Amino acid sequence: MVQQDASSMTPAGALCLWLGCLLLWGAAPTPVCDPSTCSPCSEPTPGGCCPPCTPPCACPPYLADDCEIQGFTDNRVPAGLSFYIDFARKLCTCQPSGDITCTPHCPPVPPTCQAVGSPVADGCPRCVCYDKEEVAVPAGTVVSRGAQLCTCPPEGGQLQCGDGGEV
């Protein structure tokens, strides 16, 4: 076989080579999008094809019960979906990377809180006051205790009632 460098190629030879490449390129099959071959995706592209969907996240063993309780019975959470754990105190989300990350859903408790409790059904700790029956009253609320109106200060602690006394 005789090798030629590009500088010794005749214009006719270069034209033949170029036409040959052009014919081969034109004969190559072009990808055809068939929407029926798309994996289940919520938003197809304008051409009808679905973008590559991120795979669902596998629930790790320590979250398997939480996943199942919240409807992910195959222990797989679709990318972008979330669920709560720890009595709704943490929100876990399936990330596009395939990992499930959990973040606190509750706001942080201010360092000035004098008493902390969970008086609301969401289970989040917050500043509270406790009355004589040890019932937690959320900070900043006004409640009636008998004929008295009592207020729990923003930092919690002791319930302050109308006559200045504590309950």
Show the helix and strand layout.
Blueprint: H1 11-27, E1 57-58, H2 64-69, E2 76-77, E3 82-85, E4 90-94, E5 100-104, E6 116-117, E7 126-130, E8 136-138, E9 142-145, E10 148-151, E11 157-158, E12 160-161
Write up this protein.
The structure is a single chain. This protein has 167 residues and is of the alpha+beta class. 14% of the residues lie in helices and 24% in strands. The strands form 4 sheets. Strands 6, 7, 8 and 11 form a 4-stranded mixed beta sheet that branches. Strand 4 and strand 5 form a beta hairpin. The chain is elongated and about 110 Å long. The model is unreliable at 24-32 (pLDDT under 50).
Describe, in short, the structure shown.
This protein is an alpha+beta fold. It is built from 2 helices and 12 strands.
Distance between the termini: 105 Å
Q: Quick one: overall form?
A: elongated
Return the string of H and E elements. HEHEEEEEEEEEEE
Task: State the share of residues found in helices, binned by percent.
Answer: 10-25%
> What structural class results from the helix and strand content?
alpha+beta
Q: Kindly state the number of beta strands.
A: 12
Q: How would you sum up the major sheet?
A: 4 strands, mixed
| Poorly predicted regions | 24-32
Characterize the quaternary organization of these chains: single chain
Rounded mean pLDDT score? 77
Radius of gyration: 33 Å
Question: How much of the residues is beta strand, in percent?
Answer: 15-25%
| Number of discrete helical segments | 2
